[in-house]
Task: structure prediction
Amino acid sequence: QVQLVESGGDSVQAGGSLRLSCAASDDTYGYYFMGWFRQAPGKEREGVASINSRTTTTYAESVKGRFTISRDIAKHTLYLQMNSLKPEDTAVYYCAATRGDWTAAPLSPGPYNYWGQGTQVTVSS
Result:
């Protein structure tokens, strides 16, 4: 079982940047599909970006061209670089992991078994 711990959330102004990190405890981390999700108050949790065990990435339309997901397998760490932040990006951001047979990691929360505690991102206008 893998444990996930997010960090890097903060309050920034619109147009700013943040880099979220997610440290994984499992030394087989490289075999997991990983994803970043977010949940704003009163809204459902939504997929932001995902990455498979290699380098195939998937992004939500709302963040394409602004966010970049990456992973450092040697450091057991997942990243989300967020640029050109908008007030609508305000949410609690979660990283998640799962194993599966997909070519690309899914962007829906359902298939993910392991979740971090979340980190708050607040973007002011």
The chain has a mean pLDDT of 94. DSSP finds no helices and eleven strands in the chain. The first strand starts at residue 4 and ends at 7. Residues 36 and 95 are 5 Å apart (CA to CA).
